[in-house]
Amino acid sequence: MAYAARTPDLSRRAAFFVDRIVKGAKPADLPIEQPTHFELIINLKTAKVLDLDLPGTLLTQADEVIEYGTRLLQCICRLVALFGPPRPRR
Description:
By secondary structure, the protein is of the alpha+beta class. It has one domain (2-83). Helices cover 47% and strands 14% of the residues. It has four helices and three strands. A three-stranded mixed β-sheet has the order 1-2-3. The termini are far apart.
């Protein structure tokens, strides 16, 4: 289970600060910011190994629920959609 700031948001804000510094702003003059958007990710396989019984309300509030093999299967399906099925080896 992870509850952390959303990575794309952090990257966007970092790019904003880099742009300001490149344009001549002094880093000491830039405001300090705290993340405002967070995401909750739950790995059901790990929860099962740890013998955790997670309530359904927690699972419904999660931004992402990782089930055993689901993420790998999604990646394979995307690759097949992009590049076609694998060619047989000779």
